[in-house]
TrEMBL record:
Pfam families: Glyco_hydro_2_N. Gene3D superfamilies: Galactose-binding domain-like (2.60.120.260). This is Beta-galactosidase. Belongs to the glycosyl hydrolase 2 family.
């Protein structure tokens, strides 16, 4: 799932909607860092705003009845995940990955849209917990680690991080 993403640096209204024209967005392959787009390089200012990622995918009808999950190994700093315009989950903190079950949002046999709104905005409750200009290191923002699709049976051994979530995971 690392290829064929489209990226928009900044906020856009309805970035999660299927009908949004993203044809002028920047093609991206993840891992991807929001700060390093060519037109924004060269300055000392670190981007601390919003970015959107979108990717289309198709799943065969033979997968219907399976559990389809998307696993992000690292998205910094906070994000909201949408599938076909529906909000699936949100996550804060880029040092621990997360997995979201998207089975209920799939349009089997047709194109599907995965959209991710990423925030690099300062949040005192999310590590590292300080504005970037007060740190002695640089943390990346965006989808800066791999993305995977995990197809499994409905009955499966859960991801260890999911197992402790209420009404999710476990045997």
């Amino acid at each position: 799932m690392n290829n064929d993403w489209a990226f928009f640096r900044g906020e856009t209204e309805n970035g999660q909607e299927v009908g949004l024209d993203d044809s002028q967005w920047i093609p991206a392959t993840v891992p991807h860092i929001m700060q390093l787009e060519k037109k924004h390089c060269g300055g000392n200012v670190i981007y601390d705003g919003i970015g959107w990622y979108r990717r289309y995918f198709k799943l065969p009808k033979s997968y219907e009845g399976k559990r389809i999950a998307i696993s992000f190994e690292g998205v910094m700093n906070a994000c909201e995940l949408f599938v076909n315009g529906h909000k699936v989950s949100e996550h804060k903190g880029g040092y621990i990955g997360f997995t979201s079950d998207i089975s209920d949002y799939i349009d089997w046999g047709n194109n599907n849209l995965l959209a991710l709104r990423v925030s690099a905005e300062y949040d005192s409750l999310t590590p590292p917990g300080k504005p970037q200009d007060r740190l002695d290191f640089y943390y990346y923002s965006g989808i800066y680690r791999d993305v995977k699709m995990v197809v499994s049976d409905k009955l499966h051994i859960s991801d260890e991080l999911e197992a402790n979530q209420v009404a999710g995971g476990g045997l």
